[in-house]
TrEMBL record:
Pfam families: DHO_dh. Substrate binds at K71, N116, R117, M118, G119, F120, N182, N187, N252, T253. InterPro entries: Aldolase_TIM, DHO_dehydrogenase, Dihydroorotate_DH_1_2, Dihydroorotate_DH_2, Dihydroorotate_DH_cat, Dihydroorotate_DH_CS. It is found in: Cell membrane; Membrane. This is Dihydroorotate dehydrogenase (quinone). Monomer. One of its GO terms (cellular component) is cytoplasm. GO terms for molecular function: dihydroorotate dehydrogenase (quinone) activity. FMN binds at A67, G68, F69, D70, K71, T91, N149, N182, K223, T251, G277, G306, Y327, T328.
Amino acid sequence: MYKRIILPLLFRFDAETIHHTVTTLLKLALSIPGVSAICRKLYVLEDKRLNRIVFGLTFPNPIGMAAGFDKNADLVSELSDLGFGFVEIGTVTPRPQSGNPRPRLFRLKVDGGLINRMGFNNKGVGPAAERLRHFARNKGNRQVIVGGNIGKNKDTPNENALADYLTSFRELFDAVDYFVVNVSSPNTPGLRDLQEREPLTKLLTALQQENRQHSSPKPILLKIAPDLTNGQLDDIIAIVTETGIAGVIATNTTISRAGLKTNSTDVEQIGAGGVSGRPLCERSTEVIRYLHQQSGAAFPIIGVGGIFSVEDAKEKLNAGASLVQLYTSFIYEGPALAKRINRGLLY
């Protein structure tokens, strides 16, 4: 029903507009007494065999919502009710920012993908942290892990980026279970330069020093681009080892347009942005496998990119991922996707 009736209707509207409309309606519907319980019966699969202990945290299941879907920590409760074992909010920045001009989110229907150049549009880390604290106080029986994906403001020069990351880290520390350092979005000018070995080592080392000031440090992960060379991936392995961070998320969106089925003229008209969804699936798996094998399985990896089915999830897990995340496929496949994949992992 979703793919035959609902999805064609949703696709009649601008991608970003319908995202906000649907999430607003979802939040409204689940605020009605009794609806959340019904939703959980429909979409949540509770089975201890799905539990995963990764970087010291117990995940109720290995399927998470990737960063970008819930930028402002508005939907953690609702996504938990749709079967996700963990939700990564953000990317958040210290100060609110509007992001890049619209339109900035585009569908590649033939490819099962999206192109986005959102540009870290968010309401700032402070409001997100407060919403997460409110959720923690009122989450009831929901067992869901929350990650905080942090970035820098667009107008912050790279030489001052550390201050932005530290601000968000400090603000979110008591509100999230783990952190993700995002230096791999293609939509903030110059951000990917921070993936180079020297600046990245300095950034992660400083965050780890801050982290160790606490009696119970939080896992810090690094989200990397799929467009890195093997030599750059070798540097990532060395940096993770040197700084002692908890792991890697592979991967962010790609700037590559190779292999797209969508008409090239249409793709050119869309312009800049990162590609997600099915076109990213093979490359993200390659990156996961390379990191896992070359590091000797030295650290956990969260796999993300083009997971539309249980087979896709198993491919990522078999390549070396400990957990996986969805985003684009959730839009194309509908609200039952997390449960469908979890059920497939059991049987």
